[in-house]
Design goal:
Elements: H1 2-23, H2 25-34, H3 39-58, H4 63-85, H5 105-124
């Protein structure tokens, strides 16, 4: 029960991130292009976030779904660290048009916290 609650909380965050990218698709596209993301990533990422978030919310935690969500957050975190290292001023766009500031270690810490919650959920399931 607790494992499902923890996974669902992370699922909500991931799903909201995907939804916010779709709410202002033009801004997301502009920011993502400015970050040199591949076009296939720009198009598919919001939908992937919605699906992964929904799976974390709706299903009992499974190693596969928890692993995919953790991998997604790990990739995001590595990207954020690279953006911070290059002192990028392009908005993070982690949550679509609501994220208008450059990437910061606050974003990295958020993702690390979300991954920790997923690890706890995996240990409890």
């Amino acid at each position: 029960m607790l494992a499902h609650l923890l996974a669902a909380c992370v699922g909500v965050v991931i799903a909201v991130a995907g939804a916010m990218k779709l709410v202002n698709r033009t801004q997301w596209n502009d920011d993502a292009r400015a970050q040199d993301l591949w076009p296939v990533v720009i198009v598919t990422l919001p939908f992937a976030e919605l699906v992964i978030g929904a799976l974390l919310i709706a299903l009992s935690p499974s190693a596969l779904v928890l692993g995919i969500a953790t991998l997604l957050l790990l990739i995001f975190t590595a990207f954020l660290v690279a953006q911070i290292a290059t002192k990028s001023q392009v908005p993070c766009a982690c949550f679509g048009s609501r994220s208008r500031r450059p990437p910061s270690f606050r974003d990295v810490l958020r993702n690390m916290g979300l991954m920790a919650v997923l690890f706890i959920a995996a240990a409890l399931s």
